[in-house]
Amino acid sequence: MKISEVRTTVVGTPWRELTFVEVITDDGRVGLGEARMLNKTDTLLACIAELSRRYVIGSDPFDVEKLAWQLTWEEYGRVGEVTATALATLDMAYHDLMGQALGVPVHKLLGGTMRSRVPAYANGWYQGGRDPEEIAALARAVVERGYRGLKIDPFGAATAELSPSELRRAVAIVGAVRDAVGPDVALMIEMHGRFTAATAARVAAALTPLDPAWLEEPVPPHDIAGLRQVRAATTAPIATGERVHSVPEFRELITGGLVDVIQADLTHIGGFTGLRKLAGWAEAYNLQLAPHNVCGPVGTAANVHFAAAAPGLKVLEHFNDFADPWVAGLVSGAPVVDASDGAFALPTAPGLGVRLDHDACAEHPRTHVHFNLMREGWERRDSLSAVSS
After folding, report:
1. Which distant-in-sequence residues (6+ apart) come within 8 Å of 230 by Cβ?
2. How many of the other CB atoms lie within 10 Å of CB of 360?
3. Going along 63-185, which residue ranges are E strands?
4. Taking every pair of C-alpha atoms in the chain, what is the biggest distance, in angstroms?
5. In a 10 Å sphere around its CB, with 0-12 CB exposed, 13-18 middle and 19+ buried, how is residue 70 labelled?
6. What's the fold here for domain 108-350?
7. What are the domain boundaries of the chain?
């Protein structure tokens, strides 16, 4: 079985573009991968095309370590977001092909079944205004759908600093959500790396009494000293890692004791191959994994397979019940969160278990959207005027 072709398809939504990658073999099998590339889809497509010509065509899809080594070492450059994402889509598709060839689901290739249910938490649900009671009503609806965890960024378009009145508003929003969902539902606070260390520490201290499951990216990913300052200001767990694109770059976060929950993104850290290596490191330091997942149905399926096999899993992120729920129709076999327990079922079909519907994809052409977290109204996600340049 050798790879003969790599094909890409981009689907547009009002706030994200989903890039699907099909890796086709000489015996007619098709392996799938997917990534959501923030604001650089054209660059990703060019990278996939160039690297595929150089390394993928004619290769054996069982050689995933070789592919990762080639894209890391033979390219003689630091692996950044674009290359790591291109590698991830190909690595996903390789694993899909391996599973199909062997007649087993991908999680069986990752060490086997650790759990029969994969717990999920909801994101993308807070698409109203920033009125605390309005958001509280939306939060109640999330819990009614079975979710036992939900994430929110209550800070609007804040950058670097937060005024006293905006801090009070953010605390009021989180407080209203906590009152609405009760003490037993996990509430994750998304900070999107918005703040200086001093501001993030002040925000952390103000929100800690509301018992957040974690504070996510309180400072930009490069600000290690700032993260230490935030760590000293709160007893709440710290989560970070979605914008770290290679395993070695986690070294200071992990060995410095600066992270409790590792949020590496399978689609931005080289796919299953990269994330499995990071999972071993996390286990050595007694840390938990909560993979960042802003993908459509293929990337989500890949994350469910990884989560089913990962010893240190805490929970998996999921957007597709609330932001662009129609994306489930882009494939057959889309993973679904069960309303009875807020979890994904264990996949059983060979490979990833999903197949792309090209006709459905054609109904949603590219939007070329620019998603800007520093623009007022970004959280609506359903309005191009709110996020487009």
Report:
1. 197, 200, 201, 204, 215, 218, 219, 238
2. 16
3. 117-122, 149-152
4. 63
5. middle
6. TIM Barrel (3.20.20)
7. 108-350
> Residue 276 gets which letter from DSSP?
H
Whether the predicted model's global pTM rises above the 0.90 cut: yes
Determine the Cα–Cα distance for residues 158 and 368; give it in Å rounded to an integer.
24
pLDDT tens readout for residues 175-233: 999 999 999 999 999 999 999 999 999 999 999 999 999 999 999 999 999 999 999 99
Q: Is 364 a catalytic residue?
A: no
Q: What are the pLDDT digits (tens) for 362-379?
A: 999 999 999 999 999 999
DSSP 159-172: -B---HHHHHHHHH
pLDDT of residue 175: 98
Whether pLDDT at 388 is above 50: no
The one-letter code for the residue type at 73 is: W
Whether 292 sits among the annotated catalytic residues: the reply is yes
Contact 207, 176 (CB under 8 A): no
Active-site choice (95, 107, 192, 318): 192
Identify which of 374, 372, 345 has the alpha carbon closest to the alpha carbon of residue 107.
Answer: 345
Q: Which helix (H) or strand (E) holds 221?
A: none
Q: Exactly one of 95, 107, 268, 292 is catalytic; name it.
A: 292
Q: What is the crossing angle of helices 164-181 and 132-144, to 10°? A: 30
